[in-house]
Amino acid sequence: MKWQDLLSDGYSQAYSLLTAVLEGLQLADLDWQPGPDSNSIGWLCWHLAREQDAAISYVMKDKQLWITEGWYEKFKRPADPLDYGTGHTPEQVAAFRSPPAEIISGYAYAVTERTKQYMLTLTADDLDRVFKVPGMEPSFTVGSWLVNIMFDSIQHAGQAGYVRGLRQGKGWQKY
User: By three-state DSSP, how is residue 79 classified?
Assistant: First the structure.
């Protein structure tokens, strides 16, 4: 197995969990918060895709799909490349209104596929390239960045699943 296949599988599994979490949810479910300072399912899934889009675009030195494909319009949000949820206040999270689950899933799919395609362009030597992200310490290698983004995606998909369990109880997962 090549390293690209391994990472690609991890990103695909994060996306699969996200789609399982979103399946059959209505807007009220997506926007429900377990507490006033808690994240909603919709916000978590949006943040997962936004963060991955921003992070992969940064390392690729390319524009975000959020802007180039007009996803911001479908989410009724600004075309701000820095609006990906990190640092949102509880009030900003509470004000977030989800689009239908299909839109969230569609954006996450586009971002995941772009990530997987990007990995196919990399060599093993590329993984060792060090780069600096403004405001973040320490510096990253491309390889550690890809693993970090994948881990974060899996973590947020799991959090969204947990919130769905709080909302609907046991039995929502079909596997």
Answer: coil
